[in-house]
Amino acid sequence: MNPPNSAEKRRETAQNGAERSNVSLVVNGARHQLELDNRTTLLDALREHLKLTGTKKGCDHGQCGACTVSVNGERINACLTLAVMHEGDDVATIEGLGEADHLDPMQQAFLDHDAFQCGYCTPGQICSAKAVLEEIRADLPSHVTKDLTAPIEVTDAEIRERMSGNLCRCGAYANILKAIHQVAEERA
């Protein structure tokens, strides 16, 4: 008999009425075993249980993007998903991108262009910005992509559309745009 997959484990947990589950997450390359209330969001698992506080809780309704992380290579709002839904998944947070003496190119570009003011939204902005360039590189169209038969270009319109889920109350959008363009040009 094969061991149950994660969907079967979630179904079994729900049927048994368990209120807590053991969840295994790979966060920034390190495996973590957590016992969590089934209602714990991925955001709260990261912040409260793993003490990775770089990912911010902004609106807690998926409207601001401050909690943006990457799960299995795709960006998501960590406040909108339960941790138990990500059994075995690979989660990347701002803490996994670079170190103080060796920043990720996107982190460096944000510094170079002063692409933040208060800094609260910056971790989510950086995680989204990295994903935006990967989406464009993979030729995944957005709502503003004009030609679906040609490689997608890194334009202001593409970046703005793709970053529209990340809000900055300080209004650093022009500098965020410059930072993303800098990294795109460095990669070209």
Automatic annotation (TrEMBL):
CDD domains: fer2 (cd00207). InterPro entries: 2Fe-2S-bd (IPR002888), 2Fe-2S-bd_dom_sf (IPR036884), 2Fe-2S_ferredoxin-like_sf (IPR036010), 2Fe-2S_ferredoxin-type (IPR001041), 2Fe2S_fd_BS (IPR006058), Aldehyde_Oxdr_Iron-Sulfur (IPR052914), Beta-grasp_dom_sf (IPR012675). Gene3D superfamilies: 3.10.20.30, [2Fe-2S]-binding domain (1.10.150.120). Residues 1-21 are annotated as: Disordered. GO terms for molecular function: carboxylate reductase activity. This is Aldehyde dehydrogenase iron-sulfur subunit. Keywords: Iron, Metal-binding, Oxidoreductase. Residues 21-97 form the 2Fe-2S ferredoxin-type domain. It holds the Pfam family Fer2. The gene is paoA. PROSITE patterns: 2FE2S_FER_1 (PS00197), 2FE2S_FER_2 (PS51085). Its EC number is 1.2.99.6.
